[in-house]
Amino acid sequence: MSEVGKAFLAGLGRPDPREPSGLKFPRWKQGTWDGLYREIGAGFYKDRFYCLFGKGVDRLSACLEAWSFIVPPSKGERMILGRNAYGAILVLDDVGEPEREQTCILDPLTVTWAEHDQAMFTNLLGRWLPEQDLYPPFHDHALYQQWRKESGEALGPDEILSIKVPLGGLGGQMKLSNFLVEDIFNYYKTTAPIFAKAKAQADAASKKKAARPKPRGQSTSSSRPKRR
Predict the structure, then answer these.
(1) pTM of the full predicted structure?
(2) Which residues, at least 6 apart from 99, have a Cβ–Cβ distance to it below 8 Å?
(3) Residue-range domain boundaries for the chain
(4) For residue 172, with 0-12 CB atoms within 10 Å meaning exposed, 13-18 middle and 19 or more buried, which class applies?
(5) By C-alpha distance, which of 90, 16, 20 is closest to 55?
(6) Are 69 and 203 contacting, i.e. CB atoms less than 8 angstroms apart?
(7) Residue range 1-35, pLDDT digits in tens
(8) Where do runs of H (alpha helix) occur along the chain?
């Protein structure tokens, strides 16, 4: 087994259930993935918290299209790698371009698009995913495990724990009361106009604040009243 495969399995274990591969690389790179697939598989990992590399994963491109207000166009080929239980989508941009290939994450918890130019596909599998140090919020499964324990339920193939009010400036919190089970495609479609408007308003407010003249500071000691 390759070192990449060993590292990945040490961190994420084997998929359950295992699914057929859904990744199609350029011919020169497909053989590398085919070998890794035989070692690490594809499907659901870590009690279904991650859904990675499986058949049909490319359907999630519809979610990126729905959130085009925050997802920039790719300069090259874009590949969907998978998602987590909160609906955060893992993307490989500029596939097969050694100088530009990078991993990106569309995160509905914070309504952000994060780019990681040090994470190409192979070191994503051999380091960033198993060591969970690529965008830590993508790996935070505490609330998911709480939901599993309290509900006794499991998410369906296209279901996620969707956040009602996103974190950060929009005021949401990582509490079960702020999440509900929802179809991921419906979630991205229905929230797109709402979050696009909220983001536009927040950006406008931020620009307005930045444009305000700064209050003049206190002058030097020469202008202070002198003691008599």
Answers:
(1) 0.88
(2) none
(3) 58-205
(4) middle
(5) 20
(6) no
(7) 999 999 999 999 999 999 999 999 988 889 999 99
(8) 3-12, 27-40, 61-66, 121-123, 142-151, 184-211
